């Protein structure tokens, strides 16, 4: 016992390793972890590079704005880009209020109990439903039962159900990141619960909240399976390419990518696919980078830094 | 044990000189099944500083938080007994805890300014209570910051983030924030424990100043601090309010053996 207190005797307590051996192992582990981190960067870099190599030759103003072609070469993806944004905005319009309200309830108001557990359980179950199943559900409800046929609105509502749990989770986590001392400080000044949430908690949570919403926007933008059966696989033929009616077919960029590759008749399907993939990738990356910038700016503005 | 307690914890003779501002009778506080405060009764005299002392975990903070219904915010905490402010039961069914906290302000152990500007921090309370207009709010901000001895240090940077201030300045800002809503009682939970000695002495000077207009109840783990700043002292031990009285009496002629042991340093 007494001997083990002296530093010289310390290694004797563990396995008979020398200090040099342990240092070498430490170095090795650092290397392994560093390599894993590097692998992620290399993979992403390779992926982007390869898509650029394939897709860049297809890029042109014509490709980005022209309507798609059914049988001849030279079609563009203009309406698809428009539809992707249109469905995204519709979806966020439905999802954000419900999800943030639900998240606020769960995080700030709900006390542990049967109802809270039930809501959490439902949200988690909803989150695990594969998007293709959600697509079939949308097909049943919006397309068949309500007789809407394939519509932008049906697609957006399906995506709303699909993304509601994730966005609720994002809200909850954003609110969790707000120190309880802020809430107590506000309540101790005679503020009501709602005043506290509205004036202290939400402004403090705005950065993680917007970051989370924009990241989910990126996911909605790239969602495919749930839209094939609900928003359809063609743009509203014969009408203007930029069609604001929520009750018309609205093929998005990602659906177009899938469609040209699997069922497309155009001779330049591969090129159209590569081009669509590149546009999609750039958009989703833009969402991710935008999310960081926006979160940063907002938190600086709202916290008076 | 109780035989050594010659004066009951309620209303020793010295306290009768001042009007009673708050009155606690048979207070019990439970965290789930654990009883943190046992049958505590106390009179808080008006326009005085009362210190709550005792070793860590003795329940002094729990007791303090019962005085402005902060326990309402935490699930699983049960408060029993009576707490009155000017004779009104603050736990009565028809009393809104929000109104209670408007009249009884609180300063916390760690400075907790909101992540807003210095100005927005001070006028937060007045704003939620309906004060409008930049001129009115500016007046309140200046008065409160003056009162909290912070004005000269921040007057040129009211629109800077409160988080840029030092710890001691942040705590004085939190005091200014409480003063801005003009409460009648200010509760302080070890307000200087996270601060350096210079910042601490500024806070202590400020507390001495505050009792002219407010009733102050302060939790402190430092007996020297209690001796320096308080008029009355209450000693807690293991959830029990052992002894209360004039600070001089508590320190120089404690009635209870346990108080004496604590004062003379026989507990940690």
Description:
The complex is a heterodimer of chains A (305) and B (268). Chain A is mostly helical and 305 residues long. Chain A is 70% helix and 0% strand. Chain A has helices at 19-55, 61-65, 78-109, 114-128, 131-145, 152-176, 180-187, 193-222, 225-228, 253-262, 269-302. The longest helix of chain A has 37 residues, at 19-55. Chain A is globular. The termini of chain A are far apart. Chain B is α/β, with parallel strands linked by helices. Chain B has a single domain (2-263), classed as P-loop containing nucleotide triphosphate hydrolases (Rossmann fold), CATH 3.40.50.300. Helix content of chain B is 34%, strand content 25%. In chain B, strand 1 and strand 2 form a beta hairpin. In chain B, helix 3 (118-128) packs across helix 4, helix 3 (118-128) runs parallel beside helix 6 and helix 4 (134-147) crosses helix 6 (167-179). The A-B interface holds A 111-112, 179, 181-192, 195, 199-200, 203-204, 302-305 and B 68, 70, 73, 75, 98-99, 101-103, 105-106, 108, 110, 112-117, 120, 124-125, 128-129, 159-164, 174, 177-178, 181.
SSE blueprint and pairings:
The complex is a heterodimer of chains A (about 300) and B (about 270).
Chain A: H1 19-55, H2 61-65, H3 78-109, H4 114-128, H5 131-145, H6 152-176, H7 180-187, H8 193-222, H9 225-228, H10 253-262, H11 269-302
Chain B: E1 20-31, E2 34-45, E3 49-53, H1 60-66, E4 77-85, E5 88-89, H2 97-103, E6 104-107, H3 118-128, H4 134-147, H5 151-154, H6 167-179, E7 185-189, H7 197-210, E8 215-219, H8 223-229, E9 232-237, E10 240-246, H9 247-252, H10 257-263
């Amino acid at each position: 016992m007494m001997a083990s207190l002296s530093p010289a005797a310390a290694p004797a307590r563990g396995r008979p390793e020398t200090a040099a051996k342990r240092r070498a192992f430490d170095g090795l582990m650092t290397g392994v972890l560093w390599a894993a981190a590097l692998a992620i960067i290399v993979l992403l870099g390779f992926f982007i590079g390869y898509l650029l190599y394939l897709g860049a030759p297809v890029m042109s103003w014509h490709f980005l704005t022209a309507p798609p072609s059914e049988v001849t070469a030279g079609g563009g993806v203009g309406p698809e880009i428009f539809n992707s944004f249109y469905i995204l905005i519709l979806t966020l319009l439905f999802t954000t209020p419900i999800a943030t309200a639900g998240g606020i309830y769960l995080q700030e108001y709900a006390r542990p109990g049967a109802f809270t557990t039930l809501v959490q359980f439902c949200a988690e179950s909803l989150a695990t439903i594969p998007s293709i199943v959600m697509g079939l559900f949308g097909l049943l409800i919006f397309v068949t039962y309500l007789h809407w046929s394939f519509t932008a609105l049906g697609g957006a509502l399906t995506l709303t159900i699909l993304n509601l749990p994730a966005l609720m989770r994002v809200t909850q986590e954003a609110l969790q990141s707000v120190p309880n001392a802020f809430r107590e400080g506000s309540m101790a000044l005679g503020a009501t619960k709602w005043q506290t949430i509205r004036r202290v908690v939400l402004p403090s949570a705005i950065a993680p909240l917007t970051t989370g919403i924009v990241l989910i926007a990126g996911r909605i933008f790239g969602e495919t399976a749930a839209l094939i059966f609900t928003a359809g696989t063609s743009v509203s033929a014969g009408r203007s390419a930029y069609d604001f009616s929520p009750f018309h077919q609205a093929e998005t960029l990602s659906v177009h990518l899938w469609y040209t590759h699997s069922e497309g008749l155009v001779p330049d399907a591969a090129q159209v696919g590569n081009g669509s993939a590149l546009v999609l990738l750039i958009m989703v990356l833009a969402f991710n980078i935008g999310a960081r910038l926006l979160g940063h700016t907002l938190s600086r503005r709202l916290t008076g830094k | 044990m109780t035989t050594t307690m010659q004066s009951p914890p309620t209303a020793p003779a010295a306290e009768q000189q001042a009007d009673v501002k708050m009155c606690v009778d048979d207070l019990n506080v439970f965290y789930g099944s654990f009883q943190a405060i046992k049958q505590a009764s106390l009179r808080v005299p008006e326009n005085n500083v009362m210190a709550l002392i005792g070793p860590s975990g003795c329940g002094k903070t729990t007791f303090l938080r019962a005085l402005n219904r902060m326990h309402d915010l935490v699930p699983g905490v049960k408060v029993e007994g009576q707490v009155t402010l000017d004779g009104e039961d603050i736990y009565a069914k028809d009393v809104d805890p929000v109104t209670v906290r408007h009249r009884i302000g609180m300063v916390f152990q760690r400075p907790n300014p909101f992540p807003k500007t210095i100005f927005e921090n001070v006028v937060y309370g007045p704003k939620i209570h309906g004060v409008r207009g930049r001129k009115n709010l500016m007046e309140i901000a200046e008065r409160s910051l003056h009162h909290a001895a912070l004005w000269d240090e921040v007057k040129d940077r009211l629109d800077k983030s409160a988080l840029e201030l030092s710890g001691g300045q942040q705590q004085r800002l939190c005091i200014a924030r409480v003063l801005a809503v003009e409460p009648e009682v200010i509760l302080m939970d070890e307000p200087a424990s996270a601060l350096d000695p210079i910042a601490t002495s500024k806070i202590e000077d400020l507390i001495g100043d505050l009792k002219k207009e407010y009733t102050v109840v302060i939790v402190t783990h430092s007996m020297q601090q209690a001796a320096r700043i308080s008029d009355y002292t209450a000693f807690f031990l293991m959830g029990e309010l052992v002894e209360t009285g004039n600070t001089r009496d508590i320190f120089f002629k404690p009635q209870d053996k346990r108080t004496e042991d604590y004062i003379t340093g026989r507990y940690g």
